[in-house]
Request: fold
Amino acid sequence: MYKLTYSPASPYVRKVRLAGYLSGLNDQIELLNPDHETHIKMKSNNPLGKIPVLMTPNNQYIFDSRVIVELFNDTSGKLYPNDDNKKIILTNAALAEGLVDASLLYVYSIRYSGDQKPSEVWQKLQLTKIKNTIDYLDTNVLNDFNSSNLFISHIGLIVALDYLNFRKIYDWELKTKNLDAWHKQVSASLPGYKETYPKDPS
Ligand SMILES: N[C@@H](CCC(=O)N[C@@H](CS)C(=O)NCC(=O)O)C(=O)O
Reply:
């Protein structure tokens, strides 16, 4: 069995879980809650203090989410193709991940502001990245993220768009047409979509 540091709200953990579903490995992944002794031990193995961390069946610790995805792809071959399209798929996945990064930096600007007011300059910087990327995607998603197979790029973008909704950061659904249609179509066919939809820890 694989062991995975779990958090129901984390977009990077969700990406790894969806990659597990698409790779056919979901049944082999045990989720460990934040208060689980092994979760704490696994997390402490990453000096950056970030999740996800994966423990492989032979007790190796792997982070970050991109490396875990690569490991799952080595096993399944299902997350990106090993041909000329590989770099395109991974570039699209990186764009989606940038959307998650900007969203999380926005959320953290509030969560870790202590008794100070969050920096408006910082928030505006992140919101501009988010808005520009959503505009870009609304124009290009049907070409760039279009294939008969689902890949890690699809997972990444679904995770990013749902996280924007979950944290109410930017109402992209109201502002897009192609992207909204793409999301409806892909989310309906992505294995594990509903099971992994973000929620606050109980
Ligand atoms: N690049 C990392 C990012 C992971 C990350 O930032 N995870 C968040 C949870 S969603 C975290 O652990 N944050 C705590 C922190 O930054 O200290 C990855 O892809 O795994």
